[in-house]
């Protein structure tokens, strides 16, 4: 997509040799890899090539039963361990992840389709950081602000999405183990591999059997897990529709629930913004991980007085994005995770056009195999357009305009979601005033899509409830 | 002096017409319905009806809807008020209650079938509860928020913010202390509330509304409805403009039904739990209706550095 | 290439007075330091391999302003430098020449003779380099001296004291005067000494100030202070020349100077050029490296690419 320039970057692929993917994988239950009770398997493919990477056992209700039983059995000992011992296990895991980070980055890129630049520089460092952070909490829970000697809940059933497979695993497992819970985790059906490699890391770390159980599978396995009567805690990251279904499932039980769901983040650019950095922030906001990010800045709200200047800069910048082989170290935009997701993005983009928004993409050649979608910009979008309201979960930016800060805030908040927002202005007081009025759980001022283990993450309204990360993230796994 | 009657007839007292409290006003139910409220004596449980106390408004779905509108309208101002201001308003409620202590002792005794001494203990505890939460308004953010030491050139701050409009099913048994214990934490942090009073003992709640109206609590911040809990709660649990629900006053079956309805817009839901309202509360009823907002600000160095090779 | 006279472009009225100039410069979009540095660092992760690397190394060599600016400079030292500029790698005559040699004014004549006929330009620092603390007449005399001796390019320093005290029109007028002293034969590079301007906002303002005054190149630094060229300040200046051309049609070059010592660093800068200003600037008419030791590292890397073996310092010349 970068225009034919004198300075053509030669291919710079990261070596696949650092990762050894077995032809088949089992479920990880009670410290062993086992076949599914009904013998079912499914294939996981590389979304950038459609190559089959491996065949994975597919968990069903009976396997959920086995895994919950194993986790329950392990809970007594694990929760009774001194916090300092649990901490050392988690520190071990953090260190092994660091050691194996290149391998895991390549694996994640293969299974998910996101650029190696991101798995190497964002996902993996954050994964290791998350375990390192929560490791330190394990023996300090008395000081976490939840009273003396706070107790774990028991068995945590966790269901995670495909957009940050290993990072979402870390967000779920690290605080659960630090607080003394045991877990049964279901990775997404399109990205099971890194979770299975994590099982091997648990083995290397000497983690007691049954403390972590991994059940690759589909929605039915997730539903069985959250509905299981011996699960004490349910944590889910994914779509708002499924989140609501889970909330109904756990209604009337004592299960503690945290949900991290969809978003339609507003990225608000005022006329006094640092324009070049704002352009970068807009790009990061919507094209990081091909826009398959719940906190993506998918609505650009730009002040009318700088609209033309900003859009010119943005389009010029989009023309330099490099789409292609996710393993190439110079790739900025990788593949869409699945054919299903690609179809959804395509349909919503077509609806945007049908509803009269103006569509633009840079000149861009898409690879012939795999699932790809060109970075796309819609202008002349209003709050009434579907593409301004529905979460697209793809590299599609809807551009809206505003005239005053009041209008910007009103439009930003005019959504059922409330996960993220961005503010771009050089005026400090305006940052604080606007940030205080936005109904969103994470707000980036003059930056976007920054994450940190110490920083609580989670939404308002239909973006879910509960926080992951930081001291706040402990609460979801403690009986408080 | 002039001639007197030998014996004075007991003076005919003036009954109070109990009304709903919505948006700072005291309307009757739009439905025009009322229901009979009687004393709860220890005997009443076994022998049926107690003594007639009043006809309380039997609030309708539409009353619930009006209350949500009023609560939403009040949210901006109340959540935007300074924490110090909210603290003083809550303290003012305690001051006003102290002055009407005798009235509430009588009402609570009648409502809950308590002896005068026990009812007095309940009212004292309720007044003290307002004082406890009055002191929390400007401290909770310091206890639950703070700066997060992120690994990068950013200042990262988490602060609690009120969830919004909270539907509160007040406890059925503890009609006054329980009520205060669930309402005060909701509004202390800046939420606004639609409260369903104890179904059988709504009068202390309706009288509390009169205190709130004269305590600088802005209209709409607390709205009090009396009637059938299940009838009023259902539309509130399903209401898309209600952000959270406290199920303290729901039985097991109703709580489950309401929690399912509440999932439609992912209301924050506080399930019923066994509570001794005489115990000093923790902060969990405050944090149950708080959102954590985390804001990132770049810091960087003072000048252009040479460090980015 | 656009060669519009500086006063003819759309922004000529902003220099009408001190206050219009100040309003204009302070009205430029601000720079968020963290975001700018993050973008520079992110471009620094580009992986340039094989054919792209070979292209980049040769391009970088051709962009070097091979520099000696020492009190101890002698005609002998300058002649050796000139020879190196003309034949950077005596063992491989396919190696491109450097863009220029850069010397003090009194060495211009020697340098001119050393590179005669090669196409290598002679650049001379002037205007009381590096501090710039002299009367305007003295600075102009310095420039005229260098130009008279045959300098093809003049690297002037701005009056940072005036800039930092907000006397923008004074800085502007001085650049205009120096530009005039350069005549038609010498291109003017304007050095901001970014390390002394300290903030990115100042660097952006200085860039526009320099371009408004007719700079042919804007240049980061003298190489004589603690912080010289960085990816971030060079990225910022590349954004400035890009935006200036978009607004006025006038193309201005960029020269980071000081502190760039390795091939890896140089390639990072070329990536910045490629992805910020664009390929129009990937030419030594529009982009230069002010450097001395960089050249040898480029040559060693060039040998490595040609032979497959790692080279060593004994296989490149010490001049």
UniProtKB/TrEMBL annotation, chain A:
InterPro entries: Ald_DH/histidinol_DH, Ald_DH_C, Ald_DH_CS_CYS, Ald_DH_N, Aldehyde_DH_dom
CDD domains linked: ALDH_F16 (cd07111)
Pfam families in UniProt: Aldedh
Stretches of the chain forming a coiled coil according to its record: none
Keyword terms: Oxidoreductase
Domain Aldehyde dehydrogenase: 33-479
Homology family: Belongs to the aldehyde dehydrogenase family.
Descriptive protein name: Aldehyde dehydrogenase
TrEMBL record, chain B:
Keywords in alphabetical order: Oxidoreductase
Source superkingdom: Bacteria
Gene Ontology terms for molecular function: oxidoreductase activity
Transmembrane regions listed in the UniProt entry: none
SUPFAM superfamilies: ALDH-like (SSF53720)
Gene3D superfamilies: Aldehyde Dehydrogenase, Chain A, domain 1
Short name of one Pfam family: Aldedh
All residue ranges annotated as the Aldehyde dehydrogenase domain in the record: 49-269
The keyword Nucleotide-binding appears for this protein: no
UniProt name for this protein: Aldehyde dehydrogenase
Organism per entry: Streptomyces alanosinicus
């Amino acid at each position: 997509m970068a225009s034919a320039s004198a300075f053509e970057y030669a291919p710079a692929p990261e070596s696949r040799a650092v990762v050894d993917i077995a032809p088949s994988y089992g479920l990880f239950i009670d410290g062993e890899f086992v076949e599914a009770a009904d013998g079912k398997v499914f294939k996981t493919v590389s979304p950038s090539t459609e190559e089959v990477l491996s065949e994975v056992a597919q968990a069903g209700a009976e396997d959920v039963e086995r895994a919950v039983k194993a986790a329950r059995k392990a809970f007594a000992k694990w929760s009774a361990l001194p916090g300092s011992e649990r901490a050392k296990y988690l520190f071990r895991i953090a260190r092994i992840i660091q050691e194996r980070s290149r391998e895991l980055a390549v694996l994640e890129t293969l299974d998910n389709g996101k650029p190696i630049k991101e798995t190497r520089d964002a996902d993996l460092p954050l994964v290791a950081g998350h375990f390192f952070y929560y490791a330190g909490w394990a023996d300090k829970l008395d000081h976490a602000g939840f009273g003396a000697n706070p107790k774990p809940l028991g068995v945590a059933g966790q269901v995670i999405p495909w957009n940050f497979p290993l990072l979402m695993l870390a967000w779920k497992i690290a605080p659960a183990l630090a607080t003394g819970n045991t877990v049964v985790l279901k990775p997404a059906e399109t990205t099971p591999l890194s979770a299975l490699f994590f099982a091997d890391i648990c083995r290397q770390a000497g983690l007691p059997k049954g403390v972590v159980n991994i059940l690759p599978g589909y929605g039915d396995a997730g539903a069985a897990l959250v509905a299981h009567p011996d699960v004490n805690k349910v944590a889910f990251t994914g779509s708002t529709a499924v989140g609501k279904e889970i909330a109904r499932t756990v209604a009337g039980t004592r299960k503690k629930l945290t949900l991290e769901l969809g978003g339609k983040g507003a990225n608000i650019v005022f006329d006094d913004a640092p324009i070049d950095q704002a352009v970068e922030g807009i790009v990061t906001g919507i094209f990081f991980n091909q826009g398959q990010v719940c906190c993506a800045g998918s609505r650009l709200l730009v002040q009318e007085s700088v609209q033309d200047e900003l859009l010119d800069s943005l389009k010029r910048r989009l023309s330099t994005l490099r789409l292609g082989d996710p393993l190439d170290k110079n790739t900025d935009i990788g593949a869409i995770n699945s054919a299903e997701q690609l179809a959804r993005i395509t349909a919503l983009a077509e609806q945007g056009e049908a509803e009269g928004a103006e569509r633009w993409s840079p000149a861009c050649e898409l690879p012939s195999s795999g699932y790809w979608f060109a970075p796309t910009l819609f202008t002349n979008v209003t709050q009434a357009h579907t593409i301004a309201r529905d979460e697209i979960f793809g590299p599609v930016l809807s551009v809206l305009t505003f005239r005053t800060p009041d209008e910007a805030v009103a439009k930003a908040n005019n959504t059922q979601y409330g996960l993220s927002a961005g503010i771009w202005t050089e005026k400090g007081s305006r940052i604080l005033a606007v940030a205080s009025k936005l109904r969103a759980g994470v707000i980036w001022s003059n930056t976007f899509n920054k994450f940190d283990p110490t920083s609580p993450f989670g939404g308002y309204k239909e973006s879910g409830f509960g926080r992951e990360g930081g001291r706040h993230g402990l609460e979801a796994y403690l009986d408080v | 002096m002039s001639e007197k009657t030998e014996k004075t007839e007991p003076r005919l007292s003036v009954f109070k017409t109990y009304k709903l409290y919505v948006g700072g006003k005291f309307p009757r139910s739009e439905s025009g319905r009322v229901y009979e409220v009687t004393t709860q004596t220890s005997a009443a449980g076994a022998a049926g009806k107690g003594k007639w106390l009043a006809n309380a408004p039997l609030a309708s779905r539409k009353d619930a809807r009006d209350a949500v509108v009023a609560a939403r309208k009040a949210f901006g101002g109340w959540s935007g008020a300074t924490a110090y201001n909210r603290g003083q308003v809550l303290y003012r409620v305690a001051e006003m209650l102290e002055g009407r202590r005798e009235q509430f002792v009588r009402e609570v005794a009648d409502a809950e079938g308590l002896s005068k001494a026990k009812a007095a203990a309940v009212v004292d505890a309720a007044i003290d509860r307002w004082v406890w939460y009055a002191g929390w308004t400007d401290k909770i953010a310091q206890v639950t928020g703070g700066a997060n030491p992120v690994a990068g050139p950013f200042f990262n701050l988490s602060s609690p913010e009120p969830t919004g409009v909270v539907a509160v099913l007040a406890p059925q048994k503890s009609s006054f202390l329980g009520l205060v214990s669930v309402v005060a934490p909701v509004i202390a942090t800046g939420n606004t509330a639609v409260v369903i009073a104890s179904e059988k003992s709504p009068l202390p709640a309706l009288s509390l509304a009169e205190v709130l109206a004269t305590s600088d609590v802005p209209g709409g911040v607390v709205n009090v409805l009396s009637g059938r809990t299940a009838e009023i709660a259902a539309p509130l649990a399903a209401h898309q403009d209600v952000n959270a629900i406290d199920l303290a006053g729901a039985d097991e079956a109703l709580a489950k039904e309401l929690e399912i309805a509440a999932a439609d817009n992912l209301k924050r839901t506080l399930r019923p739990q066994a509570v001794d309202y005489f115990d000093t509360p923790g902060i969990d009823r405050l944090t149950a209706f708080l959102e954590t907002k985390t804001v990132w600000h770049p810091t960087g160095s003072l000048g252009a550095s040479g460090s980015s090779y | 290439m656009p060669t519009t006279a500086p006063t003819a472009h759309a922004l000529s009225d902003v220099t009408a007075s001190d206050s219009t100039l100040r309003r204009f410069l302070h009205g430029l979009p601000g720079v968020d330091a963290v975001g700018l540095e993050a973008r520079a660092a992110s471009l620094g992760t580009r992986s340039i391999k094989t054919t792209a690397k070979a292209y980049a190394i040769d391009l970088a060599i051709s962009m070097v302003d091979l520099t000696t600016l020492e009190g101890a400079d002698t005609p002998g030292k300058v002649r050796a430098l000139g020879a190196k500029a003309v034949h950077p790698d005596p063992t491989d005559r396919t190696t491109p020449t450097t863009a220029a040699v850069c010397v003090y004014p009194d060495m211009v004549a020697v340098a001119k003779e050393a590179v005669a006929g090669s196409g290598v330009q002679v650049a001379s620092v002037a205007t009381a380099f590096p501090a710039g603390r002299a009367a305007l007449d003295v600075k102009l005399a310095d420039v005229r001296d260098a130009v008279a001796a045959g300098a093809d390019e003049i690297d002037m320093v701005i009056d940072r004291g005036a800039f930092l005290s907000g006397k923008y029109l004074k800085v502007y007028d001085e650049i205009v005067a120096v530009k005039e002293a350069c005549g038609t034969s010498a291109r003017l590079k304007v050095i901001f000494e970014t390390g002394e301007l300290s903030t990115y906002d100042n660097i952006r303002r200085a860039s526009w100030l320099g371009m408004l005054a007719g700079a042919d190149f804007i240049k980061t630094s003298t190489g004589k202070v603690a912080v010289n060229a960085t990816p971030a300040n060079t990225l910022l200046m590349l954004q400035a020349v890009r935006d200036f051309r978009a607004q006025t049609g006038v193309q201005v070059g960029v020269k980071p100077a000081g502190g760039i010592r390795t091939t890896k660093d140089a390639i990072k800068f070329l990536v910045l050029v490629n992805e910020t200003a664009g390929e129009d600037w990937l030419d030594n008419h529009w982009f230069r490296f002010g450097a001395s030791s960089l050249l040898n590292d480029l040559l060693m890397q060039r040998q490595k690419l040609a032979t497959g073996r790692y080279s060593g310092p004994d296989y490149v010349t010490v001049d």
